[in-house]
Design a protein that fits this description.
Elements lengths: L6 E3 L2 E2 L4 H12 L4 E7 L9 E12 L15 H7 L4 E2 L12 H10 L15 H5 L5 E7 L2 E4 L3 E5 L9 E5 H9 L4 H4 L3 E7 L1 E2 L3 E4 L5 E3 L10 H8 L1
Helix pairs in contact: 2-7, 3-7
C-alpha cells in the first residue's frame, strides 16, 4: 500500500497447498491496482500486520489497472475469496470470527463444490485418510463418540477406542466459553459436528479447536447456495 501499512485479511485462512494458494493468488492479482478502503479489525497480529477488511470501491479503479474479466460485485476481498471457495472462513489466532456471516458465505461455496470444496475431504473417523493431511489445515465432519473432560483439556473422540480416528482437543479456557454457549459433554456426545484446525499426529490424528472451530450440525444440514444472500453477507 502507498501508506506503507501492512495488512492481512481478517477472518480468512489462506489455503496451504500450492495449487489452491496459486488459485487464490490469481484471484487477488486480478484485482491489483484497485483502490481499497481499509477497515481495521481488532489488534495487529504477531507480525504487526493490521487485521482488516479490504473493500474495493466500485467504479474507483486506479488508472491503468488491468481488471479485465474481474468480478467486482464482491467488493469485499475476504468475502470474495471465501465465496469463490478459494479460502476458508477462520478466526486464526482469535477466539471467534469478527464476521460470523462469512461462515454462511463459505457454506454456499461448499454446497456448490467450488474451489477447495470440490475435492473429497476426509471424515473425522477416517484415521488413515486424515494422516495424509498432517501439517495442513483441515475441515472435517463426523459424530463425536466420546467426550472426556480433564483438568487442563477436554478431548472429543471421533472413533471408537482402539480404532484410528480424529481426536479434537479443547483448552480449559475454550471449553469454558463453549459451555457458556450451551455446549457440554452431554450435549455433544453422539452429535454430528464440523471441526477445523491444523492437523497433527500424536497417538493419532489430532487438532486443537478455537471457540469457533467447532460447529454443531443438524442431520439434514445441507446449506443451499444463495447468490444474493451471499453477496450481502460478504460486506
Amino acid at each position: 500500500m502507498v501508506s506503507g501499512l501492512r495488512a492481512v485479511l481478517d477472518s480468512l485462512r489462506w489455503p496451504d497447498t500450492p495449487e489452491a494458494a496459486s488459485a487464490a493468488r490469481a484471484w487477488l492479482e486480478a484485482r491489483r491496482g484497485a483502490r481499497v478502503t481499509v477497515v481495521p479489525r481488532g489488534q495487529p497480529d504477531r507480525w504487526e500486520r493490521a487485521r482488516a477488511d479490504l473493500l474495493v470501491a466500485e467504479g474507483d479503479i486506479a488508472e491503468g489497472a488491468d481488471l479485465a474479466g474481474a468480478d467486482l460485485a464482491g467488493a469485499d476481498l475476504a468475502g470474495g475469496l471465501i465465496g469463490a471457495g478459494l479460502a476458508y472462513a477462520d478466526a486464526n489466532e482469535a477466539d471467534s470470527l469478527c464476521r460470523p456471516g462469512l461462515r454462511l458465505v463459505e457454506a454456499a461455496a461448499r454446497a456448490r463444490g467450488l474451489g477447495l470444496w470440490g475435492a473429497a475431504r476426509p471424515a473425522a473417523g477416517d484415521g488413515p485418510a486424515l494422516r495424509e493431511k498432517v501439517g495442513h489445515f483441515v475441515v472435517a465432519e463426523g459424530r463425536i463418540r466420546h467426550v472426556g473432560e480433564r483438568g487442563a483439556r477436554t478431548y472429543l473422540d471421533f472413533a471408537a477406542r482402539g480404532t484410528d480416528g480424529l481426536t479434537v482437543t479443547v483448552s480449559k479456557r475454550t471449553w469454558r466459553m463453549m459451555r457458556a454457549r450451551g455446549l457440554s459433554a452431554a450435549s455433544l456426545e453422539g452429535r454430528r459436528v464440523r471441526v477445523r484446525g491444523l492437523l497433527e499426529v500424536r497417538r493419532g490424528p489430532t487438532l486443537e479447536v478455537a471457540l469457533d472451530g467447532l460447529e454443531t450440525l443438524e442431520e439434514t444440514d445441507r446449506p443451499e447456495a444463495d447468490p444474493e444472500g451471499e453477496r450481502g453477507l460478504r460486506r
